[in-house]
Amino acid sequence: MNFLAHAYLSFGNEDVLIGNMISDFVKGKAKENYPASVQKGIILHRDIDVFTDQHEATKNMKKIFKPAVGLYAGVFTDIVYDFFLANDEVSFKSENELYLFSQNTYNVLQRNYKILPEKFQQLLPFMLQQNWLYHYRTTEGIEKSFKGIFRRAEYLTYNEVAFNMFLNNLDYLKNCYSVFMPQVHAHTQKRLTELLTE
């Protein structure tokens, strides 16, 4: 799952949100450099990733993208999850609710800028300027995110095949999301409760 999902699955806990958002930029034992409450978010993020990667819905979604992007299929799948979450009327009852959630997430990250990993500090202005969390709701936003993957990937050359596969398989991908989301939500809520009581 990508940035929006990790923010959403922090369940309004600001320290957990910080850890959940920066986890990919914190390697191994480096998490011990952060306050215990932020470490719980880092741990939660890693738990979400394991649950996501092992889920049958994720494996099925990856099959759609694998012919075009090979081992990067999981990265594209993560972004697709954010697209459906951003358009999920159970999670965000309106476009405005998603917008406000996005702004609140940015505000938390900006208030805690000094403790963010350097690479995340460098990324944050782009996230804010382009309003990534909000724009996951549009196909144009997803296309831009896909292009970003191609720019950063060492072994991929840009092509439109992956985005066309996304457009051509929307119903199938949405069905996968609909199976997966309630399960990851319940799993993460339970795991966070465990972490907060440790």
C-alpha termini separation: 25 Å
Silhouette: globular
The total of helices stands at 11
Beta-strand content bin: under 5%
Radius of gyration: 16 Å
Major pleated sheet: none
Count of distinct structural domains:
1
Class inferred from helices and paired strands: mainly alpha
User: What is the string of helix and strand elements?
Assistant: HHHHHHHHHHH
Q: Got a strand count? A: 0
Explain the overall architecture.
By secondary structure, the chain is an all-alpha fold. The protein has one domain. The radius of gyration is 16 Å and the shape is globular. It has eleven helices and no strands.
What are the SSEs and their pairings?
Elements: H1 3-8, H2 14-22, H3 36-54, H4 56-69, H5 73-86, H6 95-111, H7 118-129, H8 132-135, H9 139-152, H10 161-168, H11 170-196
Helix pairs in contact: 2-3, 3-11, 4-5, 4-10, 4-11, 5-9, 5-11
Which characteristics define this entry?
198 residues, mainly alpha
Question: Would you summarize the structure shown here?
Answer:
This protein has 198 residues and is mainly alpha-helical. The protein has helices at 3-8, 14-22, 36-54, 56-69, 73-86, 95-111, 118-129, 132-135, 139-152, 161-168, 170-196.
